[in-house]
Amino acid sequence: MGIKFKAFLLSLFLSFVLFAPVFSATSDGFLRISLKKRNFDQNNRFAARLASGEEDKLRASTRNYNFRGVLREPGEPDIVALKNYMDAQYFGEIGVGTPPQKFTVIFDTGSSNLWVPSAKCYLSVSCFFHAKYKSSQSKTYKKNGKSAAIQYGTGAISGFFSEESVTIGDLVVKDQEFIEATKEPGVTFLMAKFDGILGLGFQEISVGKAVPVWYNMVKQGLVKEPVFSFWFNRDVKGEEGGELVFGGVDPNHHKGAHTYVPVTKKGYWQFDMGDVLIAGKTTGYCAGGCAAIADSGTSLLAGPTAIITEINHAIGAAGVVSQECKTVVSQYGDMMMELLLAEAQPKKVCSRIGLCTFDGSRGVSAGIESVVGAKNEDKLSSGLTDAMCSACEMSVIWMQNQLKQNQTKEQILDYVDKLCDRLPSPMGQSGVNCGSLSSMPNVAFTIGGKSFELTPEQYILKVGEGAQAQCISGFTAMDIPPPHGPLWILGDVFMGQYHTVFDYGKMRVGFAEAA
């Protein structure tokens, strides 16, 4: 690396200095954690481009996912492994040890461990640009030593467990198990404005089955009620980034009553979600129900590729052309339409034309073997077959929706072909024309029987100002297969507009319009 580039990186990092956040414990019994907000900016886009150099490593870490991001092997979907903290916007401050050593962390409802960089992190460059925990300087340190590792979509950390007192505002959580990170490879943590992550998910997804900080806050009687809530300030000119309230709900943070839905599965804060509407029209995909999680550690809003593609098409987002998708439409479109018009079961259409097999509930890859017989070519053939099966299933969903709107066969095939051009990369970003926001549709999500709507101004993220401004779609694609999916991840794009309550006592999640 040249001297000039090193100097550039150093100046870039020095520009990342954070202002200390403010904590307050008020007479209402709540613990308030002031959150600092960082807007999307050009430096962040530069960091993303640097991260592209880690692409091969990322592919290796996610090789269990096929064309649609679907897990190849049975088991629980690992949302943590797909998380991208590169665009994380909201941070707060905690202390670890006695006296407290300060760290800036993401309060993340989509994971469950607490980790901070360790003074024993010697070989990772990331550690040199962040605060590091020094056990030798703490009176309350307790050795554990058990090894730990967490894989994220754009980076990984590893290290070992220790036990300490953790200060959050005016409260001290005693004997908290946490990870001292000794390795932080990748650009994500190098460029990050946060030092570590404090997970607020359930113990079921905690690495090493470590008891989460929130559990100990409740167990040690540190909060008034077993409830915490997030308010994100989406006003780009606002001085405060938001507030995380432990122990209850601040009525000044929302308008009207919350709509509550029960937690359907402990791990993530998961609940049932209904239909997704584009400009008031049903997409049909979640009409029978989908699962969703509220995730404060995810900036964007992630959902099934089939629906994200429809949204991208409606808002004019530039996606990635999928040749497999266009091939399926051109070669099998007529046959698929005939089967649907003949009232064939939609789930069986792709198996009827030989692109998938039917396992009794859904189509799966037919796994056609290559006639060449070479192992590498077999894998290539299998991968192509997976892609064709996935493209077929998405096309059937799109065709069904258009048939319900009484479109002609020619109109439907043309529409589906155009949707193929809007297919996004898994967990990737899509750009839009900043001047077209007024013509973009609203997108709504049905939760607890109520429609929660997002306007273009709310779901489009702006980078820069004036003629140099760039606009990014707040929607990104990720697929989780049945029985655990389809699954939506409602990140900051959604939670910024709707004040979110995490009720641990009653095992429910609530949403209301943010004040």
UniProtKB/TrEMBL annotation:
<dbReference type="InterPro" id="IPR001461">
    <property type="entry name" value="Aspartic_peptidase_A1"/>
</dbReference>
<dbReference type="GO" id="GO:0006629">
    <property type="term" value="P:lipid metabolic process"/>
</dbReference>
<dbReference type="GO" id="GO:0005773">
    <property type="term" value="C:vacuole"/>
</dbReference>
<dbReference type="GO" id="GO:0006508">
    <property type="term" value="P:proteolysis"/>
</dbReference>
<feature type="domain" description="Peptidase A1">
    <location>
        <begin position="90"/>
        <end position="512"/>
    </location>
</feature>
<keyword id="KW-0325">Glycoprotein</keyword>
<dbReference type="Pfam" id="PF00026">
    <property type="entry name" value="Asp"/>
</dbReference>
<feature type="signal peptide">
    <location>
        <begin position="1"/>
        <end position="24"/>
    </location>
</feature>
<feature type="active site">
    <location>
        <position position="295"/>
    </location>
</feature>
<dbReference type="InterPro" id="IPR008139">
    <property type="entry name" value="SaposinB_dom"/>
</dbReference>
<dbReference type="InterPro" id="IPR021109">
    <property type="entry name" value="Peptidase_aspartic_dom_sf"/>
</dbReference>
<dbReference type="InterPro" id="IPR033121">
    <property type="entry name" value="PEPTIDASE_A1"/>
</dbReference>
<comment type="similarity">
    <text>Belongs to the peptidase A1 family.</text>
</comment>
<dbReference type="Pfam" id="PF03489">
    <property type="entry name" value="SapB_2"/>
</dbReference>
<dbReference type="InterPro" id="IPR011001">
    <property type="entry name" value="Saposin-like"/>
</dbReference>
<keyword id="KW-0926">Vacuole</keyword>
<feature type="domain" description="Saposin B-type">
    <location>
        <begin position="385"/>
        <end position="426"/>
    </location>
</feature>
<feature type="disulfide bond">
    <location>
        <begin position="121"/>
        <end position="127"/>
    </location>
</feature>
<dbReference type="Pfam" id="PF05184">
    <property type="entry name" value="SapB_1"/>
</dbReference>
<dbReference type="InterPro" id="IPR033869">
    <property type="entry name" value="Phytepsin"/>
</dbReference>
<keyword id="KW-0732">Signal</keyword>
<feature type="domain" description="Saposin B-type">
    <location>
        <begin position="320"/>
        <end position="360"/>
    </location>
</feature>
<keyword id="KW-0645">Protease</keyword>
<keyword id="KW-0064">Aspartyl protease</keyword>
<dbReference type="GO" id="GO:0004190">
    <property type="term" value="F:aspartic-type endopeptidase activity"/>
</dbReference>
<keyword id="KW-0865">Zymogen</keyword>
<dbReference type="InterPro" id="IPR008138">
    <property type="entry name" value="SapB_2"/>
</dbReference>
<keyword id="KW-1015">Disulfide bond</keyword>
<keyword id="KW-0378">Hydrolase</keyword>
<dbReference type="InterPro" id="IPR001969">
    <property type="entry name" value="Aspartic_peptidase_AS"/>
</dbReference>
<dbReference type="InterPro" id="IPR007856">
    <property type="entry name" value="SapB_1"/>
</dbReference>
<protein>
    <submittedName>
        <fullName>Uncharacterized protein</fullName>
    </submittedName>
</protein>
<feature type="active site">
    <location>
        <position position="108"/>
    </location>
</feature>
